[in-house]
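Onboarding guide, step 5: your first structure request.
Type a short instruction followed by the sequence, for example:

Predict the 3D structure of this protein.
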Amino acid sequence: MRKTFARNTEPHVADLGDGTELLFQPEILSDDFMDAFVEMREEEKQRTGVDVEDVSMSDVEAVRAATSGVRTFLSRLMLPESAELLLRAHVERDGKRVQLGKADRAFATFAEAKAYADSLSDKGGRARAVWALRMPDRVLMEMLDWTVELYSGGRRPPTSSGASAGGSKTAGTRGTGASRSKGSTRARGR
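The system replies with structure tokens like these:
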């Protein structure tokens, strides 16, 4: 008997709805993905205090810092051009993008852009780093969840809060609860 298994060869596409598409690698070994995910999650929790799977209860500055970690993690799963786009940052000064000659000044990482913005702010005026590819944090987190589905078959890494499900009922016992589909009926017992 022979069984042939198909491997993905076409990149996965995250369509951001405005004509922007981010391309993800067709295949990543599950163990590699899980290790990278756990590493990112623990690093962000230690560095920023933010659990990337529950950002709603965190302060704004910590979430901003964790966003950079999530983008870096996602970029590791992308094809190079998409990774570069996701990580690119610009600096705005007094509401306008900082330029070098006639071209925008782009930075490969947010940290580089932030350091440059800080140096400009020291010279007067307000400068800040901004992502070149702007998107709501909600979309970024949805993309993170999507990659879990793609590369790990939907299994959360073992350190995630959803990893341990509640225990199942003892075998052989049945309840007498109401059935949603058939109204209130007694369940058969032993």
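Each response can be followed by summary notes, for example: The mean pLDDT is 77.
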